[in-house]
Design a protein that fits this description.
Pfam families: NFD4_C, Nodulin-like. 70% of the residues lie in helices and 4% in strands. It is mainly alpha-helical.
């Protein structure tokens, strides 16, 4: 980070600025879930470009492939400041979604298919820069509360889909063109505001400060839950008039601004106490510099726990004398143990890394297929407007993320329960969700959307801190983005290949029908590239072509994905068994430190 900038902000109150940075991270995450909104405008793209289902699904794969280039953001996070990473992400999103808006709003003629793939890829990649900037910075600022940090941030990124969808529905009647314009402009505006506040700040210096942090996270959890319930109530309350919809949008903005109460309270406390924190300002600044350059997991603190008998709980010993040259060379050559800082190459040499990677693929890859195909799944089951299902996945995904982050942290602290236990549980519930949607009963799509949303959220929320506890925080930005490669891989396997091919096969056997979805764009009509008429008719967006209708269209897809989740369940159980000692030792280490702190007070 820029030294002058940080120094000036630190002088205004380190603790309040630290939390102001976290609130700005919440805002970034609240607008960074645009990758999950493809279903809101996918039918419009399909008709305008004249695509079959496989081609449309490959567009969604191109969007998710953008996350594969998140490795670049991971490398950059080791050397670039957070504000620059946010700037890169916002500019890339402006180009990627801006081009899609020009096509859907018909301000330009449809672009060639390969160019659309490039722009969707850019839009998908833009969020990796935003996510990397806020996650890496906040987990380094709050290393003792990783579960709540990830739960809240990932929760808001889950809510972002519902925020965009409901605001667009309230203000623009679910117009795909207006929706894409929001995705083009809003993230850039929020990121520019967050650039002012995102900076590395030292972690809590003592047990009292950690307790205060936990209390503040509880407040933010409550505010996030209120926002989610508010969005859910809007979605489930049916049609709304223009006035009520605008009132809803205004109050939603107030709820998103509500987390500012935490830094505001801390700022008032600092002003009246005349103290900017537990340590002098100069020590905070020096600690901030040290924080960026040194690993946050080391063998003398609670987070550095090995597996097996090699672990001992230690306090800060006096620095040993410099070792001989031979001993120094042996230390350099020694491979890090689980719980210590790993480079990405060192992590990839561990069997546990690939267990986590493949199990993650089974959960989020299949969930991504449902999210990307929700527009066509809804049409196949007889729903013209699928925005309610998109919002349900988003909102219940929030509950999964925020609940899993806090619950896993609680049981880890109290009993040393390994986090992968919760990942295994989510796989079982997701299997039930896929079987429900495969049955095709009335209301099954509502139930399936809720179940997939919860389990997808749990998976994302728990996997992130698990990776940091196994492989450290020093190179976490790159390790996180490598895990996120599962999103484009899963999208390609389960959405681009499995769902796309099977759907087109069934559609080819069916009758020629009209696929419709809402659109309130300007009137137009022209033949698309497949020679089929696509246009606006009676406020509906009409594409004439072969479309599969019925629960059977995606039944085999859901059954295959249920089998994949069963495989993921087995891998999660194996990882839980292998990491049991790690988490028990981590729990013992934390309790020993707490006991030592109590004795010091006495």
């Amino acid at each position: 980070m820029g030294g002058n900038f940080q120094s000036s902000t630190c002088e205004g109150g380190v603790i309040s600025n630290k939390w102001l940075g976290f609130v700005s991270a919440i805002w970034v995450q609240a607008i960074a879930g645009n990758n999950y909104t493809f279903a809101n405008y996918s039918v419009a793209l399909k008709a305008i470009l004249g695509l079959n289902q496989l081609q449309l699904n490959n567009l969604s794969v191109a969007k998710d492939v953008g996350k594969a280039f998140g490795l670049v953001a991971g490398f950059a996070s080791d050397s670039l400041p957070a504000w620059l990473i946010l700037l890169i992400g916002s500019l890339e999103g402006l180009l990627g979604y801006g081009a899609q808006w020009l096509v859907v709003s018909q301000r330009i003629r449809p672009l060639p298919y390969w160019q659309m793939c490039v722009f969707l890829c850019m839009g998908g990649n833009s969020t990796t820069w935003m996510n990397t900037a806020v996650l890496v910075t906040c987990m380094r600022n709050f290393p003792k509360n990783r579960g709540p940090v990830v739960g809240i941030l990932k929760g808001y990124i889950g809510l972002s889909t519902a925020i965009f969808t409901d605001v667009c529905s309230a203000l623009f009647a679910s117009n795909p063109s207006s929706f894409l314009l929001m995705l083009t402009l809003v993230p850039g505006i929020v990121c520019v505001a967050a650039m002012v506040f995102m900076q590395p700040v030292p972690p809590a210096p003592d047990e009292r400060a950690e307790t205060e942090e936990s209390n503040n996270f509880s407040v933010l959890n409550i505010l996030a839950i209120v926002s989610a319930v508010y969005l859910l109530a809007f979605d489930m309350s049916g049609e709304h008039g223009v006035v009520l919809s605008r009132v809803f949008a205004g109050f939603l903005l107030l709820l998103l601004a509500a987390p500012l109460v935490v830094p505001a309270k801390l700022s008032l406390q600092e002003r009246f106490s005349g103290d900017a924190g537990s340590n002098p300002r100069t020590s905070f600044w020096k600690s901030s510099e040290k924080q960026v350059k040194e690993p946050l997991l080391n063998n003398t603190e609670e987070d550095a726990v090995g597996v097996g008998d090699s672990l001992t709980v230690v306090t800060e010993p006096p620095p040993p004398p410099p070792p001989p040259l031979a001993e120094s060379m042996r230390q350099i050559a020694r491979k890090p143990r689980i719980g210590e800082d790993h480079t990405i190459l060192e992590a990839m040499q561990k069997f546990d890394f690939w267990l986590l990677f493949v199990a993650f693929l089974c959960g989020v890859g299949t969930g991504m297929a449902v999210i990307n195909n929700m527009g066509q799944i809804g049409l196949a089951m007889g729903y013209v407007d699928v925005s309610v299902f998109v919002s349900l996945i988003s909102i219940w995904g929030f509950f999964g993320r925020i609940g899993a982050g806090s619950i896993s942290e609680h049981f880890l602290r109290k009993a040393g329960v390994p986090r992968p236990v919760w990942m295994a549980a989510s796989q079982v519930v997701m299997i039930a969700g896929y079987l429900t949607m495969a049955a095709g009963m009335q209301g099954s799509l509502y139930i399936g959307s809720i179940v997939v949303g919860i389990c997808y959220g749990v998976r994302l929320s728990v996997s992130v801190p698990t990776a940091s506890e196994l492989f450290g925080l020093k190179y976490y930005g790159l390790i996180y983005n490598f895990l996120i490669l599962n999103l484009p891989i899963g999208s390609f396997l389960f959405s681009g290949l499995l769902a796309g091919i099977l759907y087109d096969m069934l559609a080819a056997k069916g009758q020629k029908v009209d696929a419709i979805a809402p659109l309130t764009s300007t009137g137009w009509s022209y033949a698309n590239s497949n020679g089929l008429l696509a246009g606006r008719h009676n406020n509906l967006y009409v594409e004439s072509g072969k479309t599969c209708v019925g629960a059977h269209c995606y039944r085999l897809v859901f059954l295959v994905m249920a089998g994949v989740c069963l495989l993921g369940f087995g891998l999660d159980l194996l990882l839980t068994f292998r990491m049991k000692k790690l988490y028990l030792n981590l729990c013992k280490s934390r309790k020993a430190k707490e006991s030592q702190h109590i004795r010091e007070k006495l």
